[in-house]
UniProtKB/TrEMBL annotation:
Domain Helitron helicase-like: 11-192
One annotated GO molecular function: ATP binding
Protein name: ATP-dependent DNA helicase
UniProt enzyme class: isomerase
Start and end residues of each DNA helicase Pif1-like DEAD-box helicase domain: 635-836
Gene: LOC118347678
Domain of life: Eukaryota
Cofactor(s) this protein cannot do without: Mg(2+)
Domain DNA helicase Pif1-like 2B: 932-974
Membrane spanning stretches: none
A Pfam family annotated for this UniProt entry: PIF1
Amino acid sequence: MKDPIVSCREYYCYKLQIRENFRSILLLSGRLLQQFVVDMYVKIETSRLDYFRSKQQHIRSELYQGIVDTITLGETNASNVGKQIILPSSFIGGPRDMRKRYMEAMALVQRYGKPDIFLTMTCNPNWQEISNELRLHEESQNRPDLVARVFRAKLEELKDRLFKQQIFGKVSAYVYVIEHQKIGLPHAHFLIILQRDWKLYAPESFDEIVSAEIPDKNTNLHLHNAVVKHMMHGPCGVLNPTNVCMKKNGYCKSHYPKNFASSTTVGNDCFPIYRRSDNRITVKVRGHNLDNRWVVPYNPYLLATFDCHINIEICSTITAVKYLYKYIYKGHDRIAFNLVSEQNNQQIDEIQQFQSARWIAPPEAMWRIYGFVVNEMYPAVYSLHLHLEDQHQVTFRANEDLINVLNSDRSAKSMLTEFFALNRVDENARTLLYKEFPEFYVWSQQYKEWTCRKKKTVIGRIITANPFEGERYYLRILLNHVRGHLSFEDLRTVDGVVAPTFREAATMHGLLQRDSGLEDCLHEASLYQMPSSLRRLFATILVYCNPTNPRELWERFEQDMSIDFRSTEDSMLTVRMQVLRSISFTLESMGKHINSFHLLDDDICFDEDQFESREIDDELAVEIPEEDTAASEILNSEQRHVYNSILENVFSNKTATFFVDGPGGTGKTFLYKALLAAVRSRKLVALATASSGVAASILPGGRTAHSRFKIPLDTDEHSMCCVSKQSAIAKLLRVARLIIWDEAPMSRKQHIEALDKMLRDINDSELTFGGKVIVFGGDFRQVLPVVRKGTRQEHVDASLVSSYLWPTLIKLRLTENMRARLDPVFSEYVLELGNGMPPITIDETVKIPNGMLVPYEDDCTSLDHLIDVVFQDIHEYSINISAMMNRAILTPKNSYVDEINTLLIHRFPGELRRYYSFDEAIDASEQSVMEDFLNTLTPNGLPPHELLLKINCPIMLLRNINPSEGLCNGTRLICRAFD
Ligand SMILES: Nc1ncnc2c1ncn2[C@@H]1O[C@H](COP(=O)(O)OP(=O)(O)OP(=O)(O)O)[C@@H](O)[C@H]1O
């Protein structure tokens, strides 16, 4: 076995006092780890110095890149987890890198097909190679160095058998990832793609590789013992309900025990159903007799050779692909813990104390220190630059002169420009697509040129582009399909005609379909809809239907959309700009910018002066409902205090920023309405905004903060609102006396900081928010900013409480629940819940009082019962729709929503109508196979394939179609008629 690493056991045992087992941890910051490596380096015998010198270099660079963040050694207990640790966020690396690797792995699938074998090898801490090295009474868990080194050596051996000796056949590609569980033992996940002639198609060939049965003790004792030792699951379920694999619903995560099966079959799942004969052979595991149903699938040869848990599965269906790649690239373990501040136990302040860390157990720390690889991919995937002309990235040092940087030859070159350059001189190059280039040419970052590749297999992948990126996306489509082009312009040239955009060039090549369905829709609407409705429909189509050629649609329907403007205006250009301005308004309310759709040759700029007075007039014309004016009379004492404090500042023109904190139902919206009415009734401008469209639609004249302040959607700490000092919005903001931003805790802190920077800029003031009176409101107990798969800490980091603005806000509280005045017990219960007090139990679950529970019998009966309780008399709701409005069943997952909706719509009275999403079939033979599969998928952002409706049934909108008119995500509507 290859194992070049020296032992430094005595040294670090002494130094770090690793007396405890793997589970014990002490979190060390990156700097300490660095010190540890330096210390270790000094202590190692001179003969080994060179080796460690190179290792040290490696680790340092890892530290600087933030790859190695935390090393966990020693003992864990409440005191050190709670008090000592502060981890710089730069040390929490990972997910981005993982996503990139995932995309690269998918490039392998595109090229070589779906993976055939999924293999997991777990370290056996009792391997002889480990136990032979232990001292008397020493346990393997005290030797993470040995565990790491021996596992690595075994892994190399396994790779040798799989890829050199080709025990399963010739391999075209593979990916593996080393993972360390919290407990510390390393394991490796492999995905293997076999060459075409070696693919596994039939169950008979699965049986040659995988077994899921207990071998006969008399004929194969060694293998029998290995299976009993390493490959028996559990026991779990009724035999052992507390086993780690058990889910809360009482089922095993891995669905053990499996069923007996007389032969192997493909099945519908990711993996086949393996043969598990009912041969009555049983073995005793932890006091229970287990049979073939409990065997984890294994390969006899590998199990007998490696004497450790090696699970092997055949990937029988295409569904396995994404699942498995996601599984092996799921990222490292994380830990979140709370640094409780004793002085201040208020909820909002506590929320700042959560710390997130990356969890690294000792063997993983040693794995990193030794510099062993954590993942590998064969063949390597080369990511290719993708950029529009003259829009590639150029790196330079801070002290370099930018003019020189821009004028240098080197800066002008990128992978893509040099791909065109080589095409101009090399005939062979012209036969290749851009993505095929890396297989034959090597890119030199130093010399910025492609040269012929001599060996080593690699494949190329053009980095992804989203259709919303416009031209860059269409450039990618062209590069993926068209060969031999010599420049960007040449790429746009089709049959001698230079297309103005890559999108049009792609359409001329037949790579994009025409928007005939959308054209029909607009044409039909133009026959009976008002031009203003048509413009809204056009904007909705641009945003949600992703037309291949928006410009063509614009040119076709411009006349229809401009009829109302034409009657009053003379110049064609003015009319056109008014139509575009109106479309732009709607697009902005949906978070999009008109220029991203390239409706005209050049970017569209509106003459802001023309709209300036309209912005202010529109605000001053917002109707003030009578009940809002009267609301100031009936405020409760807390509301009145907040109301007076805010208005005092507004009317005396003082600077102040407030945060109104109140749980749901304490009358925040009621208060905002009273404030807006008070300011507006004095003919002053008060702007009402909210983070979400629904909240904005409740406030008179409300807009989403994004559209009102032109906050960019993708923000970082340097982002600015797209508002110039001279613009109409800037003028409106300068005259505004009060700005309200509801549901502020839902917004990312960068959005609010962008508003601060913009207001300082347009008001020429260094005061917070440019000296304006701003009222933020919301409830941190409700929804925090969305951070995909984020930890608690990441949610907190993203929110307003982590902003530099938070300490400057005057915090005002509302506590009296006005919505639940008639039910104080319930109101108190919900408040306690929001404050993280009991009913929340120690393990962070919520204890719900028995009176509120629908007892669980089984999934079906209990669901029926729940529906009966919530919608007692569903037949009446079609007549009395307001009764339905106050009832809802909330579920944690979309799949449950679909299930409950289906049940409800069938119970709802009336005739059922089914609506289907439409797809354009590419090929009739492919259609049925693909459709059945695709139509079952319900990915985020895609509506379900089948929609069931009845007259008078309530429906909820899930898109921000027109927030200013109340049509936004969450708006509830009633289905009145069918076409
Ligand atoms: N002072 C008051 N007098 C009478 N009714 C009030 C008063 N304050 C609030 N309400 C009523 O209490 C209910 C809840 O108020 P509101 O919707 O303003 O609360 P909220 O804090 O905005 O709730 P959420 O956070 O859930 O949006 C409303 O029906 C409102 O009309």
